[in-house]
What we know:
Layout: H1 2-29, E1 33-39, E2 42-43, E3 50-51, E4 55-60, E5 66-70, E6 76-79, E7 84-88, E8 93-98, E9 106-112
Parallel strand pairs: 1-4, 3-9
Antiparallel strand pairs: 1-2, 4-7, 5-6, 5-8, 8-9
This protein binds copper (II) ion.
Amino acid sequence: xxxxxxxxxxxxxxxxxxxxxxxxxxxxxxxxxxxxxxxxxxxxxxxxxxxxxxxxxxxxxxxxxxxxxxxxxxxxxxxxxxxxxxxxxxxxxxxxxxxxxxxxxxxxxxxxx
Length: 113
Ligand SMILES: [Cu+2]
């Protein structure tokens, strides 16, 4: 009985060691949610340090509908007043976007690898 208990403890110990070793790598690559507010007919500032795998989340604080529509059609998000919408970034690059209802509203996402 005592021998069996000891084996279980050893097993848990080696699992913990593996987790401790892999943790720093995961922390560096952990996806981030970048939030952009839409207010007074304008997109908020473009977030810095966006990487592939991150999420961009827009929130519409105006009292009418807006969209976040990329020039290359890779995303087209519609937001009611107080609505939110998001995309998960899949590739690096520079993405221009507008509101399709108000073409004067312009934003840009810079995505690093
Ligand atoms: Cu709009």
